[in-house]
Design brief:
The protein is an alpha/beta fold. 26% of the residues lie in helices and 36% in strands.
Amino acid sequence: MGLFSKQKEQQKTQHSAKTIQPIIVRTSNVAQELLKVSSSHKIPVSVLDFRLLSVQTFTRLNVDGKDEEFDEVTSDELQDLHKETLLHNEFFEIKQIYEIEIFSKNDDDKLANLHMSVGANATLTKVYVTIKAGSFVTYYDALEHDLIAAISKRKLRANLSINIFDQVMYKELSHFMAKIRVAGMYTFDTKQVFLISEGIEPVPTVNDALILHYETNREQENHDDRVDYSKRGYLKSVTEGEMLIEYIKPKLGESGRNCSGVFLKPKEPIVKHEPTFGVTDNINVVVGDDNITYVARVGGYVTFENNTYDIRQEVEIGEISFKTTGSIESALDADVSINVKESDTLKDAIGMGMEVEVNEIRVDGNVGPNAVVRANKAIIEGQTHKSSKIYAQKVQINIHKGFVRGDEVRITRLEHGSVEARKVYVSQMMGGTIRASEVEIEILASHATIEAAQRIEIKQLNGEENNLVIDPAAMKEVTERLEGSEEQMQEARVHIAELKHECEDYRRRIHESKQAFNEIKKRLLQYKNKGVKMPAQFVKKYQEFQVMYKQYESLKTELQEKQNRYDILAQQHQSFQNDIFDARIINHDRWHGHNEIVFRMIEPKTEVSLLPQSGTKMEYLALMKDEHDEYYIKAVEA
């Protein structure tokens, strides 16, 4: 391997040492001419250089396929080539002939430390020169001329035209040269890119397309970017005013011309998606210049039957399961109602792990394990599994064993399930937990926990070991507001304490300095009355005291503002608790066995409890406060 490397190095040295006699040629392709010389002299093209001696530009209008003669364009006429009428004419052709002198590259290059390269965009309509970071150049009189020549040579090596599309280069170079003239020697700290040629960028042709917007992003993925096959987009829900389908009309692009002078003809548009379907009155068709849009007049879900699109609001399904429909996700504001007809008590109408999101849902049967339902209104005629979750504004459940959260919840039989709502109505409660503002129970059995902010009402008490709690923070949103309020109050207390300490420190310093201040003030007044210049030391002391007094007043103002803010927060905080005195626990039956009554305070955080004696009749229970600010529970009138 060492021998071969040595031979290659020797060959490279021989090639670099070999020189050729200068050759003058006329060509339309400089790069090709350099390759010819390289091949004939058996030397790398990288050791060759050339000098541009002259350039001739020729044009012709080759109409009807006739090979018209090229006419040479003068330097003055060259400017007219930029008229778009010429450059946009596909029969207008441009050709350049270059007279160059090819010779062996030498080291006498004043721009050797200016590392430049030429690049272009995909259509060759924009050509750029890139100067590497760390390059440097020293100013001399012919620098601008040599720079243009160096750039032109690189363009010719890339088979790009010169002097035709280069107007932008001179503007860029003028800024560049101004910096070099001022600096004398200019170093490029970062890579610099300049636009040096600009042709006419073609406008791409638009092929027709049919976009089904209502199906966009229906494929659901989890955090591992794996497709969740339980979510198959069974219903394509839409809202009123939503764009469902869009047909992009075909449009022929506009021609251009690149920096090699080549005409860029736009391709003919491909048309293969023209609409052949129909729509019902539920879909509005809007015809525009560039497209046709199909917009929903109503909310619902999209159907496509008999080559016609429609929007419907109601759908009946036998069951929702992985095998049949998969999870169903429809926007809550889409006017879609689902009726799940499976009513067999031994089967699940909504299967295990299924998720349903819809405006309204009615389930004739059961909701299975780990199923989740989100709706504005939900009616479940069967029972909910203990691991199921229901979220809806209005909920009606026959037998509830899982979790439900809503605004108004009605349950026929609650069997150890959990409920969070504003208002809760239960016909029969057998264990479980409720957190709400108001709770009404027809028949209460045993082992239930009920927390309410305003009222717990029981028509018939059959059991014991129940916990009935009045808690102003029973509602989740109230708890969150209280936690936020307590955090703000704590921050305010800390800030107030710090401000009080600062104010006291300033007050003490002002008090200690007051006598000296009054004496200085008196003496300064005497100097002023006598027209004598005041001593700088006295003036400085006087000003220092004034600044200290202003800071003290500013701190007092800030302290008062913080105190006022704290008082407002405290009043809001207290207002939650004041409602507790209007809250009631109502039992229209007699008390049986062991049942605990609790009123939970916010400030101070304490509980007042009562164990009604079995057999007693205390219908309305309320929290009271005596003259010693002691709290107790008492039976009151309705």
